[in-house]
Amino acid sequence: MQFFSRVAFSFISISFSFPSFAASDEAWKAFQDEVRSACLEAAGESLEGAKALVDPFGSETFGLALVGGKSKWSDDRLGMICVFNKQSKTVELSGELDAGQVSETLE
Fold first, then answer.
1. Which has the closest alpha carbon to 95: 106, 107, 83, 105?
2. For residue range 25-68, what is the model confidence (pLDDT) as tens digits?
3. Partners of 71 in the β-ladder
4. CA 44 to chain centre
5. Are 92 and 72 contacting, i.e. CB atoms less than 8 angstroms apart?
6. Where along the chain do its domains lie?
7. For residue 96, what is the DSSP state?
């Protein structure tokens, strides 16, 4: 019986060590929607028709997304890295990246 108690305790300890596994699919979807919305709003100052590719879970502290669209000041297609602070709900964008270079990097 003592063996089973240790196994149960170990399982419970592991479960609390990884809270991301406890989040529901709906909670992750809501998080992704929040990151997408905040990043697109911030990028809207520089980009037209922007789209966002959201990292499904982000890092421990940040939501992350790659945002791309057409520059409001030229015909260039641009990309930006978006960082969403999970605690403060604030967004920071990288500088503008040439979409062609981003595409080449991902090939």
1. 83
2. 999 999 999 999 999 999 999 999 999 999 999 999 999 999 99
3. 47
4. 17
5. no
6. 27-106
7. -
Task: Name the nearest CA neighbour of 54 among 74, 77, 37.
Answer: 37
Check: pTM over 0.70? Answer yes or no.
yes
Q: Encoding tokens for residue 81?
A: 């890295």
Are 78 and 68 contacting, i.e. CB atoms less than 8 angstroms apart?
yes
With tokens 């978006």, the residue in question is: 82
Element (H, E) at 13: helix 2-17
What are the start-end ranges of the E strands in the chain? 47-54, 62-71, 77-85, 91-93, 97-98
Residue 81 buriedness (CB in 10 A; 0-12 / 13-18 / 19+): middle
With tokens 């500088």, the residue in question is: 95
Q: Which amino acid is at 24?
A: S
Alpha-carbon gap, residue 61 to 53, rounded angstroms: 18
Provide the 3-class DSSP secondary structure of residue 69.
strand
Cβ–Cβ < 8 Å for 106, 86: no
